[in-house]
Design brief:
By secondary structure, this protein is mostly helical. It has one domain. It is built from 2 helices and 2 strands; from the N terminus they run ββαα. Strands 1-2 form a two-stranded antiparallel ribbon. Helix 1 packs across helix 2. The chain starts with 12 loop residues before the first strand and ends in a 13-residue tail after the last helix. The chain binds zinc ion (ZN). Zinc ion binds next to loops.
Length: about 100
């Protein structure tokens, strides 16, 4: 039998209220959300074409290269915290002694 739409089980990783197919994506999301929660950029609609005023970027977003590095470092740190926490359900079950 060949179904057009099949059904299969897959492990997903939860970060916030979203689900991800890879741990990497979940940790990246968590890091991005942390930065976003501290973001203080001026809204884009502050832009004024008449005077040429451009909205100010916050200290996290004024340098996008630095921001990407910070997000990657944060994601690695979050993963490190989770791996050293043995009670984390996201970890693969360990072999019983
Ligand atoms: Zn910002």
């Amino acid at each position: 039998m060949h179904l057009i739409v099949g059904c299969e089980q897959a492990t997903v990783y939860r970060a916030g209220n979203r689900r991800f197919f890879t741990k990497r994506a979940a940790y990246n999301h968590a890091a991005r959300e942390k930065i976003r929660s501290r973001c203080d950029c001026e809204p884009l609609d502050y832009a004024d074409f008449a005077s040429g005023y451009m909205p100010m970027a916050c200290r996290y977003h004024e340098d996008m290269d630095r921001c990407a590095k910070l997000q990657a470092r944060l994601a690695r740190w979050y993963k490190h915290i989770d791996t050293s926490n043995t009670n984390n359900e996201a970890e693969e079950p360990k072999e019983k002694r």
